[in-house]
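dumping this here before i forget
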Amino acid sequence: MAEHQHHLHLLRHYELRLLRCTTATQKPHPPTPQSYPATPLHTVITDALDLIEAGRYAEVLSSGATRNIFGIEEEFFSEFSDDSVNCADGFYSELMNRMGSFSVEESVNEVERGFRAVLVMCIAVSAFLGFTQCNLTGPLDGMPLCPLNANSFKEWENWARIQLMSSGSDLFGKTYNLQYIVFAKMLLMRTKDILFEGSFTSMEGVRSISWWLARVILFQQKVLDERSSSLFDLLQVFIGETFHHFGTLEKVSNYWGAELHEEDLISIISMLHLEAGILEYTYGRIDSSRLYFESAEVASGLELSVTGVLGFRTVHQVEPKAQLVLVANTSTSNSRDTCLSTIPELPANASKIGENNSCVHQNGKDEVSDVLMMPRLLQNDNPGIGAQCIQNGGTTAVPLNAIQQGVILAQCLLIEKCTRHDEMQRWEMAPYIEAIDSQQSFIFIVRCFCDILRIRWESSRSHTKERALLMMDELVQRIYACSPGVAQRIHFCYGVYLPTIHALRKEYGELLVSCGLIGEAIKIFEQIELWNNLIDCYCLLGKKAAAVELIKARLSEMPSDPRLWCSLGDVTNDDACYDKALEVSNNRSARAKRSLARSAYNRGDYDMSKTLWESAMALNSLYPGGWFALGAAALKARDIEKALDGFTRAVQLDPENGEAWNNIACLHMIKKKSKESFIAFKEALKFKRDSWQLWENYSQVAADIGNIRQALEATLMVLELTNNKRIDSELLERITLEMEKRTSTRQPVSSDKKTRQPVSSEGANNDSCTGSAHPSDPNVIHVGDSTSSESGMGISRENENLVEVLGKVLQKIVRSAGGADIWGLYARWLKLKGDLTMCSEALLKQVRSYQGSDMWKDKDRFKKFADASVELCNVYMEISSSTGSRRELLAAEMHLRNIVKQGESFSDTEEFKDVEACLVEVKMKLESNLERAPPVVMK
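structure:
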């Protein structure tokens, strides 16, 4: 049992040394325990770890020990001397077979297999770190094309590119030494399978392999042009396993035991949470990312807050203004004893790290612009002395370790995603960037990431764009420089969201374009093989033909690159180029399928477009905008279910896609699912509040489900957005009728028997379903049946409020443009309020709206006029009954007599008979009123 524990201890010691190569700890690694015999295998592992820690990854891969593992002799390379994809595939397949034989050799026990697994891990990690050096940290020289220093064939790189692109995404620009990451991934995956198949002892000793696999796959995602769903699924598995093993301080401490320093413990747990947060951020899962970053902040002993301090932002500023400053409360041992000069309001142990401290990095930068790199802050150092300006070198900020610096910079990622993209967004990030700039010491990778964030910020302002360009040029040169060494650059490289070298140079090229230096940008885009950006630059110069010739020249050298064929198709609008891209990629180019799908949509072949989009999304389901485009094509093809599925998947990937939410709501309206439509419209309106069409549709579905208040509020928004020009009389009729039902035990007299019926789905507006990709997509809007009304004698408080809101809507309309229908609705609202006099005035205006010389020739118009007249006379009779006045009865009689006299041509209509009946009733009331009147006394 003791021997078993000793072996596990040694295995974990080797794992810790591997991890420490990429963490931010500054302490030397613990020595190898002396109680173990120096066997040849242990010596080989120790030598490999020494080389890895020194940054000599190529030496590990070309060492004799590595060749012995794979059984490689000089004759072996001669068997694979063909510059072809098939030869490369056979070469690496044979390597995996030999590695498998080495790892599971029958003559060795499970403990020995564990050590062999660690040795293979060392080789895999060497290949992975070599790939990281070539594509992230630099410098780029010193690495052969093939990891085992075999034949350097270009087609073997093409084989590696095909392996990486099998996830459904193209490579982003020119990526170097692709075989390294493919080789590392194959070794780690195969080793993990072997460990899983073996005894529990082996897996217990090599748990960190899941963490390395998560790193490799996340880096693969980093070099791809689009997010890959298949890689995301793998990442969820491996990062989940890693958290299961190392998710808490207790688990990490129990795994490595006493040889783990406190700094190592904090570094490992913080690093894991940072990497998990970056993973979630990469795939747009911001809420999960925030939780991981907060956990990293707690684990690193930081408590961050932003405050305001008076200071100067420019050289010539006279009056101090409030400046955002980051305050960091630290609880780690390296900062507890630091003496600080702080403003009185801050805690004594708080680091006011937004100040301009002396920093070698800033020397000379402020001379480029009148805007200071960091503000000069005011501070009361002495109660007897007024506020003093703290110049460069005035105070010293609390030193923060690399983990804490990485946690601070991670907050910028959240601000970038969670706030509005405007000028204020960069200013919110400023205190975090300035906090790191104020530090006296930092590791290479953190310095680079901080510079990138500052460059992005300053390039957005005209006064600092020149300085941003100079900083970008210096940063690129720093990446390519030989100093510092590889081992110093690799520290903490997976704990920050640093762009790859070609992505960084792309940003450099775009910055050059924004500064008008298009010629220089063209050179960069050509070097890193970003053909679309290159085409855009040539088009800006009016040299589109030159772009075509350049791509064709590259195709003569690399005819099997689908990216080149797609770029040629983009610039020539030739579908044959996309077909060729599919051919050379073995039908695996998602970009080519998407381009063909768009082309089919534009020419009206919606069924073909839908099919191609389905095929493209099957390759990569995380492509932004893909599901929306599929939904739009399906909608045009009249495939409602597929369209609904496409838009639903779109909002799952991007919950802020207001267009997709709107289309989902409209499709639910078509399917007569008002509740689902109401929910979708609420989401859509969070992001498209200026669309009156959305508000109008929302008001209709709100009425469908009986939510009268929301319907009225939405109607008010429509009136406000359209300047009272868009009026939905049918909806207001429904709401008024509903309120009449709620406030009375009897059905009110109808002034328009037909318009008071629930409106069917045929009376629809076709402009509700919109999309940024295809804005002309039509959708039918319907209004369903009225909801069941409340019964009761009195008017409840809720109904009183609803009546008031209804009146607000109607009054807003009649003050600007009241038609006959609106005056009728306004009269009914006044009747609900009990104001019969104003009700009669409104009805009189409705009647006059119908009057005209053409009315006696228009049967439909006469019917509406007759109904409104009957309603007016009924109100006159009610007023007369309550006041005893004859004036209203006489006015009603005169009005009805005139209708009967002039409307003889409509005597066969029901409405004319209603007028006659009303006239008879008015005459009877006049006679009754005359009989009750007291006799007149003659004097």
